[in-house]
Design a protein that fits this description.
By secondary structure, the protein is α+β, with helices and mostly antiparallel strands. It has helices at residues 143-156, 183-197, and strands at residues 62-68, 71-77, 86-92, 95-107, 116-122, 166-176. Helix 1 (143-156) crosses helix 2 (183-197). The longest helix is centred in the C-terminal third of the chain and has 15 residues, at 183-197. It is globular and about 45 Å long.
Length: 202
């Protein structure tokens, strides 16, 4: 079939069209131009140590599971947020979170502290509720979200390399939530996994 412009079109809906042979959902092997890049220097002006390469260069899909209590704790990497320095989708029961960590390539000048920003958000759609009318948009973080962000910050901050001054952000978003498993502890575990899998000195 061809439209009025002469361009060949397909009558099938986009979700029923056959996928081209060269198109893949997940890339199991790194591309030719994806050579491992050296990690960030541990301190300002200090060269990176030899052999310290970026860990998520290949961006391949991987899922690991372990039984914790009566349920399985699963961690997935390489499916979403591939442009982040490190990202995981962590699930325990029916509670699922996306945790992504991003770090700047250069340290911020003129500061004597570690600029770490942690954000934790519990969206209404995670519980299957979508508010209507004026409250349809998400508002500012609630008290529990602020306290959970601090719970993620406190155990992770001392584990960074001493003297590291690069801007670093950790974002945890609740994708799905149930009534039995609180996402706060799962978010702390996901933040540690995302930072460990990144090239940030953690």
């Amino acid at each position: 079939d061809r439209d009025v412009t002469g361009v060949q079109t397909c009558a099938l809906p986009i979700w029923k069209r056959p996928r081209p042979a060269h198109e893949t959902i997940f890339r199991a092997q790194p591309a030719a131009d994806e050579t491992p890049r050296p990690s960030r220097a541990t301190k300002a002006g200090e060269p990176a140590p030899e052999g310290d390469e970026k860990k998520m260069t290949a961006k391949k899909f991987l899922r690991e599971k372990i039984k914790v209590g009566e349920r399985e704790l699963s961690v997935e990497i390489g499916r979403v947020a591939k442009q982040a320095s490190g990202s995981v989708v962590i699930r325990y029961g029916d509670t699922m979170l996306l945790v992504a960590a991003v770090g700047a390539d250069k340290p911020r000048e003129g500061i004597d502290f570690f600029p770490l920003t942690v954000e934790y958000r519990e969206h209404n759609y995670a519980a299957g509720r979508i508010p209507g009318n004026y409250f349809r948009r998400e508002g500012r973080p609630g008290e529990k979200e602020v306290l959970t962000a601090r719970m993620i910050d406190r155990p992770c901050r001392p584990l960074f390399t001493e003297g590291y001054r690069n801007e670093t952000q950790v974002i945890a978003s609740v994708i799905s939530a149930d009534d039995e498993n609180d996402p706060d502890v799962i978010a702390i575990t996901g933040a540690s996994c995302a930072l460990y899998l990144s090239d940030i000195p953690f």
